[in-house]
Specification:
By secondary structure, the chain is mostly beta strands. About 5% of the residues lie in helices and about 50% in strands. The chain contains 3 helices and 28 strands. The protein has a 4-stranded antiparallel β-sheet with strand order 1-28-27-26, with no helix packed on it. It has a 4-stranded antiparallel β-sheet with strand order 2-3-4-5, with no helix packed on it. A 4-stranded antiparallel β-sheet has the order 6-7-8-9. A hairpin with a 7-residue loop joins strand 11 and strand 12.
């Protein structure tokens, strides 16, 4: 696609097609300042693509069943599979795997957790660097006790710190289908105790609920049984008539967008403290079934992946459609935007030394969007 403004009058075309998966693509994510693209498929395979050469750099089988989600956090690659496991891999070790790695040269994860994957809900994570010697990496996943609840794991210490959020509310939400975990902590109060985290959760019933979780992280480090966690439901909105399939949160945490098995797209505008019910704005499309939604890092636009094979671009402010991207011949299930960071963000989030093992000598600063799904292909688009 050219760098001219996208419009519905001039149907765009992908600028490249990645071919390498033999099964449906479920997960896409840009990493290492957009230098690489990670993709995960329905057979448990992960491919790391070089965005400069457009070639597969690393390929390995991470799970015994389909990949739900793959992300990178600092020097760790975290994968969530349909085999009810969550693996944490040392990113620098992946460079030892040749493209198309076989069983003999496969690596083992640094950490493996038994989690819930019954309802296809992707895990989410929240990372905070407390000091030079201490960090916190929390993972939120559907509860192993009941798929309606949510568990929070402390990955750094490999401890389950909150179990079954929402199960004591006597609400008929059905399965938890989408999770976003985040904090409202500023740099100045990162070391304060306790700390406040939030979980934005989407459910089978069509509801979206915001949970407040206050965690006393100091007491969590001990083995004594104390009341370390307080959970509160802040609000509950049911805007969808079908099961929510995806939810995404803007980088500035000012709004979220959900999509569903219906044809409705809903925007939730938050207040500064997140405690008031959000202001709702919505739009509809012609065809039902929106498998995923992703908001670009600058918050200006978002994209949806449709069962009808279309990728749609919308204005986040007006919710008006900007473009329809047509390439895929079967349903699209996964999307990812490249992240364009400010200079301050680049200085704060310095690349790890391990990243250099994969050739992290050049960054890609283009507004890329990728989409993948049932046709096993990944389309690459350049969006204004």
């Amino acid at each position: 696609m050219s760098k001219k403004k996208v419009s519905s009058e001039t149907p765009p075309s992908p600028i490249y097609i990645f071919r390498g998966h033999a099964e449906q693509i479920n997960s896409l994510e840009f990493i290492e300042n957009n230098r690489y693209l990670i993709s995960g498929d329905a057979e448990g395979n992960i491919i790391i693509w070089d965005m400069i050469s457009k070639r597969s750099k690393i390929q390995f089988k991470a799970h015994n069943d389909g990949i739900l989600n793959v992300v990178k956090c600092k020097d760790k690659l975290i994968s969530h599979g349909r085999d009810n496991t969550l693996h944490v891999w040392k990113f620098n070790q992946l460079s030892n795997i040749k493209d198309g790695g076989n069983k003999e040269e496969s690596i083992k994860p640094e950490i493996s957790l038994t989690v819930n994957s019954i309802n296809f809900c992707k895990f989410d994570f929240c990372y905070e660097e407390i000091s030079d010697k201490r960090d916190e990496l929390f993972i939120a996943v559907p509860s192993t006790e009941d798929s309606s609840g949510i568990d929070i794991w402390d990955i750094t210490n490999q401890k389950l710190i909150v179990s079954s959020i929402g199960l004591d509310q006597n609400s008929k939400t059905g399965y938890c289908m989408g999770i976003k975990i985040f904090s409202n902590n500023t740099f100045q109060n990162l070391q304060s105790i306790p700390k406040n985290y939030f979980i934005l959760a989407a459910y089978e019933s069509g509801s979206v609920i915001l949970w407040s979780i206050i965690i006393n992280t100091n007491e969590l480090m001990s083995n004594e049984k104390k009341n370390n966690v307080a959970v509160e439901k802040l609000w509950d909105r049911k805007e969808h008539g079908e099961s929510v399939l995806s939810i995404d949160l803007s980088s500035d945490k000012q709004f979220a967008i959900s999509t569903s098995g219906d044809n409705k797209i809903v925007k939730y505008n938050f207040d500064e403290e997140f405690r008031k019910e959000p202001l709702i704005k919505s739009t509809t499309i012609k065809y039902a079934g929106i498998a995923e939604v992703k908001i670009r890092s600058d918050g200006k636009i978002f994209a949806t992946a449709g069962w009808d094979t279309k990728i749609r671009i919308f204005s986040s402010k007006s919710m008006k459609p900007l473009a329809i991207l047509s390439y895929h011949r079967e349903s699209v299930y996964a999307l990812a935007f490249s992240r364009i960071e400010s200079m301050d963000e680049q200085d704060h989030d310095k690349s790890t030394e391990e990243g250099k093992d994969l050739g992290n000598e050049e960054r890609t600063e283009k507004h890329y969007l990728v989409g993948g799904g049932k046709d096993q292909r990944i389309s690459l688009w350049e969006i204004y």
